[in-house]
């Protein structure tokens, strides 16, 4: 895909100005805050590297307000603590949904939030364990997947030519949103695929609705998720920052104390 370099430069200039703004309630610039948040992804500090929480967070986050996702993940953590269970992919893969629902009712939650997604997280945990079991170097499951698999460019291939885990992300999203099964290529599932890879320490970006919408606000025409990643990569290179740092700038409300959105800062420089 040909990328308009003049558009990349123009967009980068705008983002560069936004990066220097100190958000309300903060003491350092938006870029410094985004860099700190990105480093938590890259160093596996999010959820202290607990694979079950990383996977559950990624699956629950699709199209949801992130503060709610944190609350839902906390429910699961408290459940494990109450049952004397440790955090692991094995624990998530064996989650007793009936017992979990009974626990939630005991604390005043009528049902499992986004139960279909929790069920998929359990299935994904089983799949990751099958494909990337524990090894002597202590890297297994999600972390070995990130190191050993091809990455998002699989989505440029026909569905049948992708690996099993990649296809599973598409299957999940098709079922979740009741979409027809694709005959050949489809980018459905790419955003959650990318978000999970970010949570496992890969320097990348998730081409979700917020990222795409903010790039469009900057005047960047985005036709699909793969183009979003390609253009964002060009912008990050022009700015001299990591791709995951750009991601965290564009979704800054997730990690700012006052939940200010990128578009709020963009209006300040226009």
Protein described:
The chain is mainly α and 270 residues long. The chain has 2 domains: 1-43 and 203-270, no CATH class; 45-200. 59% of the residues lie in helices and 0% in strands. It contains 14 helices and no strands. The protein has helices at 5-19, 30-42, 51-60, 66-83, 89-93, 97-106, 115-131, 141-148, 164-176, 190-199, 209-217, 225-239, 243-250, 262-269. Helix 1 (5-19) crosses helix 14 (262-269), helix 3 (51-60) crosses helix 7 (115-131) and helix 3 (51-60) runs antiparallel to helix 10 (190-199).
Lay out the secondary structure.
Layout (H helix, E strand, L loop, with lengths): L4 H15 L10 H13 L8 H10 L5 H18 L5 H5 L3 H10 L8 H17 L9 H8 L15 H13 L13 H10 L9 H9 L7 H15 L3 H8 L11 H8 L1
Helix pairs in contact: 1-12, 1-14, 2-13, 3-4, 3-7, 3-10, 7-9
What are its keywords?
mainly alpha; 2 domains; 0% strand; 270 residues; globular
Strand content: under 5%
Strand count, sense and closure of the main sheet?
none
Q: Helix coverage percent of residues?
A: 55-70%
Q: Which blocks of ≥5 consecutive residues have pLDDT under 50?
A: none
**How many separate domains make up the residues?**
2
Give the tally of β-strands: 0
Query: H/E series, N to C?
Result: HHHHHHHHHHHHHH
Global geometry: globular
What is the residue-averaged pLDDT?
92
Summarize this structure briefly.
The protein has 270 residues and is an all-alpha fold. It has helices spanning 5-19, 30-42, 51-60, 66-83, 89-93, 97-106, 115-131, 141-148, 164-176, 190-199, 209-217, 225-239, 243-250, 262-269.
